Amino acid sequence: MDRYSLRTRKWLDLRFDPALVELVGHSYEPYQPVHGIRPGDWTLGHFMMAARWSWLTEVLRSTGADSFLDVGGAEGYVAQLVRTLHTPRSCSTDLSISACERAHEFFSIGTLASEAHRLPFEDGAFSVVYCAEVIEHLAHPIETLLELKRVARDVVIVASEEGVRDEAARAEELSERALSDHMDRSITCATDFELLFPGWDARIYGLCSELPTEVPQSSRDLVASLAGALHLDDFRSASEATGMIAVLFKEEGPAEFGSTMLTSVRDVVEFAFDHSAVVDPSKATLHGAYLPPRICVKCGAPVELLASATCAGCGLVYSRQWMTEDFVLQDEPDSESALEERLNAEFPDDAERVAACLALQDLLDFPLSPSLSTRQLPLELDAGWTACEGGQLSAHAESGLVLDCDAHDPCLFSPELYLKMDELEGVRVALEVSGLNSEKELFQVFFRTLNRPLWWEQASVTEAYRTEDGSYTFELGLPDAGLFGDNDILTGLRIDPSHHGSHSRILSVELV
Q1: Where are the beta strands (DSSP E) in 259-376?
Q2: For residue 496, how many other CB atoms are within 10 A of its CB?
Q3: Whole-Å CA distances, 437 to 115, 407, 464, 465
Q4: Residue 66 — pLDDT band, cuts 50, 70, 90?
Q5: What dihedral angle (degrees, nearest 10) is formed by the CA atoms of 331, 177, 15, 47?
Q6: Are 84 and 271 in contact (CB under 8 A)?
Q7: Phi and psi based region of residue 64 (left: phi greater than 0; alpha: psi -120 to 50; beta: remaining)
Q8: According to the model, what pLDDT value does residue 215 have?
Q9: What sign does the dihedral 310-314-315-321 (CA atoms) show?
């Protein structure tokens, strides 16, 4: 698993794990509307979700699909909707183990953890494969689209609010990418599907032709508003379009596709209004949840899991946590030649198409800067230091960095780090502070790690100091090691020289 995917998985696991969320001082808020969407609760975000589900429902209705996979399905709401309205052979995958556990807990849905570009299913395992609001976050979008294509027997559906119509729009979007744990890094263009799905009936629609200025809250008004927003216009030429949805039929799609869209919209809205999808735990049948046979994501040999299993083909060991099978290759580096090999196998007589796909991956690539593994952190602007919103960061005339902030709580964020927590004892920071305007001041350092990928109070250390302008050297130990778990990796520091507006000259930062 590449470094970006590893960080994303840790971030998602925290987001979907109620125990961990409570530990860091937040309440658990499901990503999907697992308890339904009641009158008064509908937002523009829910409206866009319902639009995606309506397109999906129309595809399922028009094709008579008998099996379904949601790739990046989070807490399983869409798989549950499909299971309730269309077919019991419905399941979900997600990179996050915690998300898969919630899908079992909430819906008794069959699910497993996997990377989107390595799906542990045989060719043509599902009638319809669905991937919504996922492709833009991936480090391997080209391989992912090929995987969706491989495991789909009839239809692939890809939806993204970040989809663009042409290369000029993509270039603009790519220029604005910013590094985060879950960034919109792979901007999909409508022409990508023609490149990767030659011979398929590729229909690219605008997800919504327009959004309401005020989201209706009654069932009847919602149905009317949604149905009016879902047009069968080509996304590339539509005058108005919010988001993109690609419906890719392996054979020629139904001529009358879209003719029952009003019924599909009504089914989706009624499901959200009238059906709290969460399964009563006393009635859950976890062992009976649908999942087709699994294959090894490294060699393709069949894999059968009980508590854990070893692939008979290559010896790779897979594990099972609670009811979640984990098919993510933890320590498997991504080969630079893997995509080219796959493309050559996919398009054996089309070198021009292979070259275009490789060029597209290069265009979308967002290489991470190397992680620092030195204890004496270089205080240079181009090393990757950043400041809080409203903070001004500049180079010191002699050495170090200057952080100016008139607002509350000025913060300095380190470059990305990679150091083993169990080999560290603390941090030493030398600074000069002026412009203090409070009777009390507090110097604080936050530690961000792979297991705790966010800034939270328990993972910080503090020291009070006098409020006169002057020079200070702080030597602080680590937070309680039990908060992080075994073999955790320090990935970042946040240094708060004061909790009020001030002028700080940071002269050195050293891990000890």
Answers
A1: 294-295, 302-303, 308-310, 317-321, 324-326
A2: 20
A3: 50, 11, 15, 13
A4: very high
A5: -130
A6: yes
A7: left
A8: 94
A9: negative
Residue pair 278/34 in contact by the 8 Å Cβ criterion: yes
Helix spans in 175-244 (H):
191-196, 219-229
Question: 168, 195 in Cβ contact below 8 A?
Answer: no
- What whole-number distance in Å separates Cα of residue 261 and Cα of residue 131? 20
For 287-388, strand residue ranges (E) read 294-295, 302-303, 308-310, 317-321, 324-326, 386-387
Cα separation, 413 vs 404, in Å, equals: 14
Amino acid at 225: S
Within 10 A of 76 (CB to CB), how many other CB atoms are there?
A: 30
DSSP state of 237: T
- Both tokens of 459, joined, read 């993972």
Write down the residue that tokens 């709401």 correspond to: 77
- pTM metric for this prediction: 0.87
3-state secondary structure of 508: strand
Closest CA to 297 of 327, 334, 326, 320: 327
**Chain centroid offset of residue 445 CA:** 28
The span from the CA of 461 to the CA of 303, in Å, is: 46
Q: Answer yes or no: is pLDDT of 122 > 80.
A: yes
Reduce the DSSP state of residue 53 to 3 states and report it. helix
Q: Domains, the chain, ranges and CATH?
A: 3-274+287-364 (3.40.50.150), 381-511 (2.60.120.430)
Local structure of 198: helix, strand or coil: coil
Q: What's the mean pLDDT in 24-29?
A: 75
Phi, psi of 172 (to 5 degrees): -65, -45
The candidate with the shortest Cα–Cα distance to 55, out of 245, 196, 250, is: 245
Pair 62, 264: CB distance under 8 Å: no
CA–CA separation, 276 and 399 (whole Å): 60
| Helix axis angle, 351-364 to 167-174, nearest 10° | 30
Q: How far is CA 59 from the centre of its chain?
A: 25
Q: With H, G, I as helix, E, B as strand and everything else as coil, classify residue 25.
A: coil
CB atoms within 10 A of CB 266: 20
Q: b/e map of 296-309 (b: 16 or more CB within 10 Å)?
A: bbbeeeebebeeeb
**Mean of pLDDT values over 80-87:** 94
